[in-house]
Every structure is written in C-alpha cells, then in structure tokens.
Amino acid sequence: MNFSLTEEQRMWKDMVWEFAAKEVRPKAAELAEKGEMHWEALKKMGPLGLLGMTVPEAYGGSEMDTVSMVLAIEALGWADAGTALTVAAHNGLGCAPLVLFGTEAQKRRFLPQVAIGEKGLAALALTEPQAGSDLRGIQTRAERDGDHWVLRGQKMWITNAAAADYIVVLARTAEGRGSKAFTMFIVPTDTPGLTIMPPEKKMGLGTSHSHALMFEDVRIPDEFRLGEVGAGLRQTLAVLDGGRIGIAALSVGVAQAAFEEARRYALERKAFEKPLADFQAIRFMLADMATSIHAARLMTYYAAWLKDQGRPYTKAAAMAKLFASEMAEKVCRDAIQIHGGYGYSREYPVERFYRDVRLMTIGEGTSEIQRLVIARKVLEEA
Ligand SMILES: Cc1cc2nc3c(=O)[nH]c(=O)nc-3n(C[C@H](O)[C@H](O)[C@H](O)COP(=O)(O)OP(=O)(O)OC[C@H]3O[C@@H](n4cnc5c(N)ncnc54)[C@H](O)[C@@H]3O)c2cc1C
Is the CATH number 1.10.540.10 carried by domain 7-121? Predict the structure, then answer.
C-alpha cells in the first residue's frame, strides 16, 4: 500500500480545492436555502475535467484515476455537499455504467456531451416507491416489441434527473427475483412518455435535486439497451461499489468543513472567562473529530487505491462508506454541540452540514446494507 500522491494528483488536488473555495463555497448557503442547483459553478466544472472524471479521454472525458476523483469529491463536499452529490452522482452513477458496459456506438453517442456538461448531466435510476435496498423487488418493466423496448413503471429519488441528457434505468425484463431478471437501458430524457416530477422537498442538500420519474409506454430502441439482457443487477452492483467510494469522500469533506467551523468557534467564543478551546471537554471533542476524519480519509483513499490497482475493493468500499458516513454525522453533531445555541441557528453553517450529511448513511446503500456486504465478505474469508 502506497498512499503518497503522485505529482499529478497533488496538482489536481490543489486546483480542485482552490476552485471549491473560490467558486463553490461562497454561494453554497444562499443557493441551498433557495433550493437551487449551483449552475454557475457546474458550468465551470466541464472545462476543468470535473464532469468527465470517469470518462476516457477518447470520449471527451478527463479520465481520472479513482484517487483523483476522491480528492475532487472531498474538496467539493467541503465546499457544498449538494453540489458534490450532483457531481458524484453524475460521474459515478450516470457516466460510469456507460463507460463500463456501453458499446462503442453508445459511448460515442452519449458520453462526449455529458463529460463536459454541454448537453446536461447523467443520472442512474434504480430506486422505486416500493423498493430501494431490495433491488430485486423493483417493478418497472421493459417489454420487447420488435427492435424496441417499452418501459412502464415509476422511479423515485433520482438525482440529477431533470438536469440530465440521459438516465440509465434498471428495469425488470423477466418475472421473479432471480439475478438475471433485470436489464439496464439508456433513456434520453426527451423520450416521449417519460415524466420527470419536480424536485423532492428534502431535509438538506438544497443544491442537489432528486426526482420521481414516471414511465408511460416509453419506447426506446434495442441499441439503447446497456449490456446483455439479464445482466442489469450484476452491472448495478459493480457501479454501486464505485459510487460508495464517492459518498465516503463526500462525507469526509463535509466532516472536515464541520470540524474547521467547530475549531474556529472554540478558539473565538469565551465562557467562564476562557475560550471554549481551553475546556478539556471541548478539546477532547476536537481531538476525536480530527482522529475519526483522518481514519475515514485513509479508508476512503485505500478503497480508491485498491480500485485503481484493479484489485477487489467491494469490502473496502463498503467499509469506507459505512465508517465515513457515520463518522461525518457524529462530527457534524459535535460541531453543533460546540457552537451551543448558535449551532442550531441558520446563521452558522454547521446546522446545514448536519442536515446535508444525514443522507450519507442512506444513499447508495444504507449503513445496514453496507454491514450486510461487509459481513458477507468477512464470512466468505473464514
Ligand atoms: C437525496 C437522495 C438521493 C438519492 N439519489 C438516488 C439516485 O440517484 N438513484 C437511485 O436509484 N436512488 C437514489 N436514492 C435512493 C436511495 O438509494 C435509497 O433511498 C436507499 O437505497 C434506501 O432505499 P429505501 O429508501 O427504499 O429504503 P428501504 O430499502 O425501504 O429501507 C428502509 C430501512 O430498512 C433497512 N433495511 C432494508 N433492508 C434491510 C435488510 N435486508 N437488513 C437490514 N435492514 C434493512 C434500511 O437500511 C433502512 O434503514 C436517493 C435517495 C435520497 C434520499
């Protein structure tokens, strides 16, 4: 294991942190409050390579290694969790399935525009009103009709859907719960019969939009089928493994931001004629925050490094996602505690961080599902 960054990775990291601090962070609170996506920053991300991180250069992407992608998502998470989620979902969930399983023609047709954000973003639609963790329970159906497929059903919580050029959709192509009953399809968002509902009203992450979708006789040609018929579930699990490293990185970024606010406040605010930072109870909280952020960051970089080495990383990704997301929730909670009453006020950013970070133990597989994945792996190793 070698954690030192290459010269290229260091330069990339510095560039993204500077961009995040200058272009993303200053407007994060205002846009989140209004529930608006950060389009000004997103538009600048295309030319910088932030929207094509998983896409090979041959298809217009910046073709980053996973460690570089993690560095970027962490920086964006520090600046604005909602924008970081937009970028992570676009790269990790929307672009990655085409990169991994697309035909040459599909890649040429769909990737170049989204890799620079020219024609919108990309999204992945798995979850339904009645099935999230239990992917084998999805009901959206795709039926063959000559050289077309007809999709009918509903999806729920689809991040970036209204901003997307296309949505990768997991649909049922056979009855039952067998692992070969599902297939992925690329659905351009202007396809007749697809309705994208207004953004869901959420607890946090105001700068990221997630939508319910309705598929009413959505006809798409067989050339938009992604991968073999029956390969959809296997493909989905592979995509989610990578996506989980992104959510871990995002969690580390939010936790870092909360820690920095708490440390600043502890040094400034006085109680009993001393700065809060002089009280051992507060010092211990800061020490625990810094230690757990460091541990989560190393776990996240390690999972990314394994992926880049072409080694198995399912367990490491699940562990990083589980640990980092639960760590970040605790860090944000403690950051509010250190702020006392002001921590509960919208005037200070820590309450927003706390609301934003709450998603991380739920999206892309809940903590319970991560534990199931980890338990299966450690038992197999026995
Ligand atoms: C802001 C946001 C953005 C999202 N973006 C997307 C997206 O872009 N694309 C997409 O497809 N989905 C997206 N989702 C959906 C998300 O992935 C699901 O919410 C998540 O996977 C959980 O599924 P569920 O909500 O159906 O909960 P359920 O599966 O109903 O789970 C409810 C509870 O039961 C627990 N549980 C379920 N099964 C088990 C089990 N076997 N053992 C133990 N506990 C279990 C869960 O851990 C959870 O605590 C998003 C969700 C949100 C909130």
Answer: yes
